[in-house]
Amino acid sequence: MKKRLLTLLKQKAFKKGKFVLSSGKTSNYYLDGRLITLDAEGAYLIASLILDMIKRDKIDAVGGPTLGADPIVGALAALSYINKKPLKTFIVRKTPKTHGMNRQIEGPALKKGERVVLVDDVATTGEALMEAKQALSVTSAKIVKVIVVVDRCEGAKENLAKEGLKLESIFSRSEIIQEAGIADFGI
Prior knowledge:
It is built from seven helices and eight strands.
């Protein structure tokens, strides 16, 4: 599964050029994670791999920052149900809605002490994940770990560790660069 997902990332999501990332950093490559997370096969592979990564963690819910986590949690909800081990899922908005229920965290309510995993497609500095952690602080849920499809290895792991969060990734930057068949040209 992991090998097939890596092939999909190379074929569909990896782009060379000059890009400004959401962190504000510039890069000579871009991973458009949504081209994989919104692809039927990609969504299935990612959800399968994440479910395998959390199977021993006694997780109650999985969620993360919008927009990167949205398709991932949808796939996780469906696949966990099919596997007869349904998980609650949630999405964390950047800011609370100003209408309706005024929520920042969308989905079934998280209860005190519930064990959660944060997910996202790509992590650079980890800023969106740290913002999601802050939003979750009002729930008293316990964040067990953070999982991303790709860690760009540009500080996210270290920044999240300072916040007491452990980052795991399906792939690291070096795996993507190697699969793309180019030298690791630094960022």
